[in-house]
Amino acid sequence: MPDSPQIAYGMTLDDWIEWMEERDQPKFRAKQVVEWLFEKRVSSFDEMTNLSRDLRDQLIGEFTIGLLPTVRLTGSQDTTRKFLFQLHDSRLIETVKIPANANFDGERSGRLTLCVSSQVGCAYDCKFCASGLAGFTRNLSAGEIVSQVMTAEHETGDKVRNIVFMGMGEPLANLTNLTRALTILNADWGMNLGARHMTVSTSGLAPQIEKLATIPMQIRLAISLHGATDGVRERIMPVNKKYSINRLFEALEVWFRHKKQMITFEYILIEGVNDSVEQAAILAKRVKSLHAKVNLIPYNTVEGLPWKRPDIPAQDAFLRVLSNANITATIRREKGHDIDAACGQLRLQEDEGLERPASSAQG
What we know:
This protein is of the alpha/beta class. The protein folds into two domains: 6-64, DNA polymerase, domain 1, CATH 1.10.150.530; 74-351, Alpha-Beta Barrel (TIM Barrel). Helix content is 33%, strand content 16%. The strands form three sheets. The protein has a ten-stranded mixed sheet with strand order 3-4-5-6-9-10-11-12-13-14, with helices on both faces. Strands 1-2 form a two-stranded parallel sheet. Strand 4 (81-86) and strand 5 form a beta hairpin. The longest helix has 15 residues, at 142-156. The protein is elongated, with a radius of gyration of 21 Å. The two termini are 13 Å apart.
C-alpha cells in the first residue's frame, strides 16, 4: 500500500502551530493556513499567497490538501446524490448528499445533510448491510473523514449543514480518528459546524458509547437497533452477541446522563424478521425509558442478500403500535432507493472493475 500522505484537512490548529514552531515560523502562520483551507477553500498550497514561497514548498512536500477524486456520482442536483470517492491507496468510500428539502429524519428543514463514511468496508457483518460484503480493509484517518465533507461541498457548491456518520463502517470502532474529525468539523477555525448538527450512528459498541459521552461536544447519537429482543437482534446483528441489548441500554443511560438529549433509534424493517407487532410493543417499552425517538426504515434491497421490505400495511401496523404508546416515531420512505443508496452498494459495483491492492488486516 502506498505511504499515507499527511492530509491538511486532518490537522488541528494546535497541530499547525506546533508544525510552524518546529520550522521557526511564527504562530500566526498556522491561523493563516487554516483560513486558506476552511474559509477560502483553496485547492492547492500555491494559492496561499500570503505565505512565503519557501513555506509553500515545505507544505507541498509534506502534505496533500485532501480533496478526493470522484470515481462515480449518481443522482441529480435536486435529489439524493451518491459520491464514490477514491483514496490515496485506490480504496473506495461512499458519501451521500441528502436533499436540502428534508433532513435525515424525514422532516422538512432546508438544510443539506451529508452521510459520511468512517471506514473502508466494515467488520461488524450486519446481515442486511452491503458495507460488510467486501470485508473490512482499514479505518479512515481524520483527514479522510473531513475530506469527504470538503470535497462534497467543492463538487456541488452547496453548504453542508448537517453531518451523519451513517455511511460505510462502524464509527465507534474508529473512535480516535472520529473524535479528531469531529473537533475539526466543529471548530470555529475549521468547518464551524454546530455539534448538534452532527450525528454519530453506531451498531451498539457499548464501551465506546460511554467514552464518547464524556467528550465535551453536544453531538447527537443514533443507534442502529433493528431488533427489540436479543434473539431477533442477534440474527441480523452479530455485535449483539458481544454487547446485549441490556448492556447497550446501560451505556445509553450513561450517554443520556452526560448529554441530556434525545437519542434516535434506527430500525430497518425486514419482512418476517423484525417487523411483527410483538417486536414493536417490546421496542416501545425499551425506548420509552430513554425518552427517545424511532426512525423506521423499510429495508433497502441489496443484491446478493435475501431480505425483503415489508408491505405498506405491515409498516403502518408497526408504526401504529409505537404511536399508540406515545413514542415519537416516523417511517422514512427513504430517498435514493433507485441509485443504490444503501451503504456499500456503489462500492461493490465498482470494486471489481478497479485493480485493487491486497486488503490490510489492520484498521
